[in-house]
Amino acid sequence: MSVFEENTNPTNNYKDIQQLTAEIEAIKEELILKTELLKMKKKQFLAPSEISRYSRQMILPEIGIEGQKKLKASSVLIVGVGGLGCPSSMYLTSAGVGTIGLVDYDIVEINNLHRQLLHAEANCGMRKVESGKLSLERINQNVNIVTHDVQLDGHNSIEIFQHYDVIIDASDNLVTRYIVNDTCVKTGKPLVSGSAIQCDGQLAVYNYKGSVCFRCLHPKPQPPETVGNCSSAGVLGPVPGVIGVLQAMEAIKIITDHPNVLYNNLVVYDGGDCDFKKIKLANSKRKGCICTKQPEEISIDTDYELFCGSKANDKVKSINLLQENERLTVLDLQKYVSENEPILVIDVRKKVEYDMCHLPFSINIPLDDLKTEQSHSQLIEKINLSYTKIPSLITVCRRGNDSQRAVMELKKKSILKNKVNWIKDVIGGLHEWSKQINTNFPIY
Ligand SMILES: [Zn+2]
User: Fold this and answer.
1) 181 CA distance to ligand 1 centroid (A)?
2) What is the pLDDT of residue 211?
3) In this structure, are 281 and 391 located in the same domain?
4) Can you list the pairs that 354-362 forms with residues at least 24 positions away whose Cβ atoms lie under 8 Å?
5) Which of 171, 232, 240, 254 has the most beta carbons within 10 angstroms of its beta carbon?
6) Which residue range forms the structural domain that includes residue 38?
7) pLDDT band of 320, cuts 50, 70, 90
């Protein structure tokens, strides 16, 4: 009976609906299968336009038609769409890797742009993965760009990693390095690891053809105070550029089965001297390392931040070392300045940072220098020469953490007793000044 014929029996109607639903489901499944098969066929086939596009690299015997098909059928996950992730993803997208996954939790900021070339001025404030996807799609529409707008942790990493063939660690912190390494070991993925800070960079391939993993070399994390990041230590843009491009190169070599993938070696780049060193690593795994275990024995349900004693991002957490009455707001500071109160504002950042930008009424004594006798005599001299009334001391820094340490340091010094009224710091530091008082004041 056709469904268009009138049927007055409700039981028959119900049966018809059931039958039709089952038929629709069967057609749907068939369609999904056909689409998947079509996708697979497409991956194994290079269109004439693709042959033209990739011809310069396909001419190389290392790539050829088979290598290009392998690139097209492959997927690479890039953890971090920053200084390393931008160049590596640009080269891999241009090379015709079929799927590129981008992981990042952050937004584009103006201070990213000197090294993170996927992002543009107009994209400041946008999610990095979205900005990256837009730029990569402009480079090559044939590549499927997948975004993962999350902060990687031991709970979400396996689900993400399992869909990719090669993982690129383009992160900027130790916590993420351990999460990426352990997940690669557990899921059996090769890891192309890179790092860059100031003028120096490093490159290594881990967990490839039975090679060592990151943990074999670093079973225990370095103390947090010895590990810098680009936010505090700085980085020259081309340095992550060099390392990110090399990461793309190693990923291409892995995908195309190149015989000389950089495993069991570490490349160290000194941008200042323009020097590359290749250091041979132990070619056997460290005894007891997680990479010697079976995947099911490896647990990544770990508190990695606790293990490393540091955080998985470079956002500086505000600390509270002082009592509430030992702290001022930026509005208080502005009031003291406008009312010509006898205050001495000490900016405790490094000289190079003070030279970049500072409050015109502040003097610079870096926190480390505040601990020296010389700085105290400097202070006393300044107070004696410049003030008719006993002044108050106000310390300021980038975000309001070091300024608290400076207050504690200054309060220890008996030489300042009777020379100053009170000593306080500014909550939120220059970042807060920029937000609330003068939006033209540079944030970095
Ligand atoms: Zn290992």
Assistant:
1) 9
2) 94
3) no
4) 356/442, 356/444, 357/430, 357/441, 357/442, 357/444, 359/396, 359/430, 359/433, 361/337, 362/396
5) 240
6) 1-43
7) confident
The three-class DSSP label of residue 153 is coil
Cβ-based neighbours of 306, under 8 Å, separated by 6 or more: none
CA–centroid distance, 299 to ligand 1, in Å, is: 14
Q: Does the annotation mark 216 as catalytic?
A: no
Residues 116, 240: one domain? yes
In the reported structure, the alpha carbon of residue 291 is separated from the centroid of ligand 1 by a whole-number distance in angstroms of: 4
Mean pLDDT of the chain: 91
What average pLDDT does the segment 402-427 reach?
91
Could you say which of 184, 291, 308, 397 is catalytic?
397
How many beta carbons lie within 10 A of that of residue 388, not counting itself? 6
Which residue out of 86, 213, 230, 291 is catalytically annotated?
A: 230
CATH of the domain at 366: 3.40.250.10
Model pLDDT, residue 30: 86
pLDDT in tens, 86-136: 999 999 999 999 999 999 999 999 999 999 999 999 999 999 999 999 999
Q: How far is ligand 1, taken at its centre, from the CA of residue 218, in Å?
A: 9
Distance 215 CA to ligand 1 centre (A): 5
Instruction: State the distance from the centre of ligand 1 to the C-alpha of 200, rounded, in angstroms.
Output: 25
pLDDT of residue 317: 67
Per-residue pLDDT tens digits for 188-197: 999 999 999 9
Number of structural domains in the chain: 3
- Tell me the two tokens of residue 103: 């992981």
Q: For residues 86 and 109, give the distance between their C-alpha atoms in angstroms, rounded to a whole number.
A: 14
Ligand 1 centroid from CA 98, angstroms: 30
Structure tokens at 134: 């837009």
Residue 108 · residue 119 · CB < 8 Å: yes
C-alpha 209 – ligand 1 centre gap (Å): 13
- Nearest to 79, CA basis, from 14, 173, 218: 173
Contact present, 225 and 186 (Cβ < 8 Å) = no
* Catalytic residue flag (residue 86): no
Question: Cα Rg for the chain, rounded, in angstroms?
Answer: 29
Q: What is the pLDDT of residue 209?
A: 95
Residue 398 domain flag: yes
pLDDT at 306: 87
Regarding whether 364 and 230 lie in a shared domain, the answer is: no
Quick one: pLDDT at residue 41? Answer: 65
